Amino acid sequence: MGLWSKIKGKGTQFRGPPAVGEAIKNNLPTSEMIESCSVAGPGFVNVVLSKNWMAKSIQKMLIEGIDTWAPMPPVKRAVVDFSSPNIAKEMHVGHLRSTIIGDTLARMLEFSKVEVLRRNHVGDWGTQFGMLIEFLFEKFPNFEDANETAIGDLQAFYKASKQRFDADPAFKEKAQQAVVRLQGGEDKYRRAWAQICEISRNEFHKVYQRLGVHLEEKGESFYNPYIPEVIEALTKQGLVEESQGARVIFIEGVNIPLIVVKSDGGFNYASTDLAALWYRLNEEKADWIIYVTDVGQQQHFDMVFKAAKRAGWLPHGDGSYPKTSHVGFGLVLGEDGKRFRTRNTEVVRLVDLLDEAKSRSKAALIERGKGEEWTEEEIESTAEAVGYGAVKYADLKNNRLTNYTFNFDQMLNDKVPKQLLFICCMLMLESVQSSGDLVKTLRN
Ligand SMILES: NC(=[NH2+])NCCC[C@H](N)C(=O)O
């Protein structure tokens, strides 16, 4: 039926959805997987899987291991660029979605024996560091002693330094010079920068640890040294043009160009992404590069990929490798239909969100009398597994591309969805197979 809306009015021989259904049924290749196929009502195609085939497949899976089921994509190495929060700024629910979706994709590829480079493309470069560094020097003359406890909340530190930057021209001047000194590689400035990054990194790590997600950081700063050469090569190929003082790449079908060198001579997000793509293709030899960000960045990636095709870095056909994909996702909304925020309009801190998920699932366990049956440790670990698992599941069960409303009550609802039960069964089968102790597994 979904197909019908796509071909309707396009001059095909089909008169309506049932006719399309019949055609699918008649053209379905014979396969031991399929027992029968029929078209019902307004055009639903029902395919009945063969019980025999299912029994054989499950048996094979139990004997040879579940990974014999893994599809084998024609890819040896993939880069999954996900999570990627910005240093000293908040890691928000958007980054949480990216972390959950990206980790899931990485796991699926790993399951299919693809070597996955799990990349955290953190925003650790840019003019805001001048301001942060100068503020650090001002607040902590012995800046090397400044740590998380001294600085406290890095977001608040960011805000305070921004206020200082906007209010005091002398500070602004110093901050601008600090950027130049940092980019020039001056030791004291590099050390201050590294320190700020380290504090942020520790914060991010707490979230990853709770979610059981592993990432390897190669932030924007890593690609910085590669940018001039990459832009130079693209210029030699005739791709880069002057436009209003900036250097840009025009992309067919898009009315704004991709700015690769700003009018002040500085590089930007796009120049970094071009250099990163070059690096991933040429140095890391990735066959598939996947970027997981909100849909708002779709055009940016579309332009970067098209520029790479124009430069001959990527083949033109869709089915050919190496290839790039942007995996976008919708916004997370609060109950009020606006961006998910706390009451005081701050973005929700991810650690707080995970704390809440855990404490709610703990309360539910106690309510069911588990407090008397289980040790404190068992309660804690189950509350974490269920709470964080619910956050992940609530995200993945939604349509990836549309916005969704964040709701703790629904998320931790005790009506366990069928999909989750299925996963539990699979895990039980796996553990029976590996431990051979059915009684123990069932008791657990
Ligand atoms: N290669 C990339 N541009 N990856 C995504 C980076 C995401 C960016 N730091 C953000 O917070 O929006």
From TrEMBL:
Cellular component terms per the entry's GO annotation: cytoplasm
Source domain of life: Eukaryota
GO molecular function (one): ATP binding
Keywords: Aminoacyl-tRNA synthetase, ATP-binding, Ligase, Nucleotide-binding, Protein biosynthesis
Domain Arginyl tRNA synthetase N-terminal: 16-49
GO biological process, one term: reproductive structure development
Signal sequence, start to end: none
Domain Arginyl-tRNA synthetase catalytic core as annotated: residue spans: 61-408
Coiled coil: none
Family stated for the protein in its record: Belongs to the class-I aminoacyl-tRNA synthetase family.
NCBIfam families from the UniProt entry: argS
Name this protein carries in UniProt: Arginyl-tRNA synthetase
Organism this protein belongs to: Theobroma cacao (Cacao)
